[in-house]
Amino acid sequence: MAPQLYPRYPPELTQSQSDYLLSNIKDWSIAHGLAVRPSTSFVPGGQDSDGALATTAPVTLFPSLFPRTCFDEALSIQTAYNELYAAIARDERWLQGIVEELLEIDDFIAELWKIHLKVKEEGYVQVCLSVFRRDIAKYDKQQSLGLFRSDYMVHVDPSDTLAKPVIKQVEFNTIASSFGGLSSQVAKLHKYLFSIDAYPSSSTNIIDPSKLPESRSVPSLARGLALAHLAYGSSRAGLPFCVLFVVQEPERNVFDQRHLEYALLSTEGIRSFRLPFHRILSDTKLDKDRTLIYTPPHAPEKSYEVTVLYFRAGYSPSEYTNQSDWDGRLHLERSAAIKCPSILTHLAGSKKVQQVLATPHSPHLKRFLPDEHKASRVQQTFAPIYPLDKSQAGNEARKLATNADTAVRYVLKPQREGGGNNVYRKAIPDFLKAQPESHWPAHILMEMIEPPALTNAIFRNGEVQSGGVIGELGVYGVCLWRNGENGSPGEILQNYEAGYLLRTKGDQSEEGGVAAGFGAVDSCCLV
Ligand code: ADP
Ligand code: MG
Ligand code: MG
After folding, report:
1. Are residues 149 and 226 in the same domain?
2. Residue 8 — very low, low, confident or very high, per pLDDT cuts 50/70/90?
3. Residue 419's domain spans which residues?
4. Which of 154, 193, 240, 340 is the most exposed place for a label (fewest CB within 10 A)?
5. Each residue of 145-177: pLDDT tens digit?
6. pLDDT per residue as tens digits for the range 235-289
7. Which of 154, 166, 411 for a ligand 1 pocket mutation test, highest count of atoms within 8 Å of Cβ?
8. What pairs with residue 146 in β-bridges?
9. Is residue 173 annotated as part of the catalytic site, yes or no?
């Protein structure tokens, strides 16, 4: 039984209060782009063939209660996390040690690694800092952008009645960290609902605007793309510049991405285009010094030089349907555009890296975060994670994972992103037994975080569901760095925290992904 930490919340609503609240949620959401494309099963007739329909994104009716100390800590350690993962992404040799354990048993990781090796053999194109230095461009160092998101749950030690709530990290995302567009909107929605008295007066001693932090994720992430765009330097091809959003098609979560595109244009003055993942080779070309040129299919007479590649696609094996998709990823990695993320940064976000950092007594954190104070704060957010290899820790984890009595405290994760890939609790032993033992090390075993009991109501697909919920706080981070050469560590050029996201799901669901169909976007009411 999860410990009780919060006051009774949210309040019960009468029918007319509920009607007022819902009609305002529906209208405000569509009016402000807190929206998704509908799933075909919710479109009358099962089709939205001309893509004209939008529906309210799954949202919570009330902002969820969240301990202020946990919120402050998660936001304030984000720059340390940015520094940590930027350092990992710059340490190719260390990453190689991690990836080599997976090459034989994880084809997806192996293919990504092959791309990195091919580009390395040819030489990563170095970004030219100024047109006057074009002749020495090869000595300039490659730059990378991370738009990261570190995800946490609140944890209370069940054996200590006086224990304070703390945050434990669920995972760290280095590719396609989503919902930065919608999370700014949902915090505004909840504030708006308060200001129009849509929350009954019995709850206004708990909900008050000073306790509802805004999420600056839209301007902050757009600024990150703009900073990388500026760092690209002068034109190499004499063409106008653009940023490319590499996207899945179709994309139900398109408005989340659009908020960033619109902010990039309106506040930073930067043109961007959406490039479907399967159109990489048809719509882009590399010139002889590997400058990336984009030609929009709607206006083929005008081409652009790509400064930044922002991947909102390419993280799942199912997107690589044939060799040309892999060729497309290689083609982009070879280019002079700044990648968000590069292949090495993508791989730095694998669950295996998180496990290696978090395995008790691991020496690796210190290597990347030499500042002891920062390292200790980051370390305190780690939940225990174990390998399933033949090391001592691995052998102990294998026993825990194959025994039905102990497996219930764990989640088993493969090296995948995007939700829907994990195996939970009592399903773990049978899942492992159905696999050859040689494949077990492709997974990591993580202790389940058990957050305090909390209730809220979720509006999704036109229905309200109330009851026990679990929240997951995501903190965005922007980091731009220059890679070192010949063993030098490189340098960080930009590093800041970039807003937050709260996702909330029913407590009967182990998975939390909003896009994967399990949760809702939410904002924090700090207590
Ligand atoms: P993905 O990269 O696919 O999002 P995650 O590691 O975030 O993978 O796992 C997906 C979901 O599973 C999370 O959003 C969370 O709801 C749940 N989950 C993952 N790890 C834990 C954990 N240690 N404790 C509790 N829930 C977890
Ligand atoms: Mg996740
Ligand atoms: Mg993830």
Report:
1. yes
2. confident
3. 384-448
4. 240
5. 999 999 999 999 888 888 899 999 999 999 999
6. 999 999 999 999 999 999 999 999 999 999 999 999 999 999 999 999 999 999 9
7. 411
8. 479
9. yes
| Active-site option among 90, 168, 223, 351 | 351
In ligand 1, the atom with minimum distance to the C-alpha of 383 is 23
Residues in a beta bridge with 414: 443
Same domain, residue pair 354 and 393: no
The answer to whether the beta carbons of residues 359 and 352 sit under 8 Å apart is: no
**Is 164 designated active site?**
no
Ligand 1 atom 5: residue of nearest CA: 171
Q: Of the candidates 394, 419, 448, which is a domain's last residue?
A: 448
Q: Please give the average per-residue pLDDT across 497-507, as a whole number.
A: 96
Measured CA to CA in angstroms, residue 407 lies from 382, 384, 521 at distances of 19, 14, 30
Are 371 and 282 found together in one domain? yes
> Does 136 reside within a domain?
yes
- Enumerate the H helices of 42-106 as residue ranges: 68-76, 78-90, 92-100
Look up residue 507 and give its two tokens. Answer: 């407590």
CATH of the domain at 237: 3.40.50.1760
Tell me if 472 CB under 6 Å of ligand 1.
yes
Statement to judge: residues 282 and 331 lie in one domain: yes
Q: What is the DSSP letter of 411?
A: E
Q: Tell me if 340 is assigned to some domain.
A: yes
With a 6 Å cutoff on the Cβ, whether 378 touches ligand 1 is: no
Place of tokens 């058990």: 450
| Cα–Cα distance for residue pair 257/272, rounded to 1 Å | 11
**What ipTM was estimated for this complex?**
1.00
In sequence order, what E strands does 277-402 have?
284-286, 292-294, 304-311, 338-340, 385-387
Among 411, 402, 408, which Cα is nearest to 430's? 402
Contact by Cβ (8 Å): 176, 417:
yes
Same domain, 233 and 346: yes
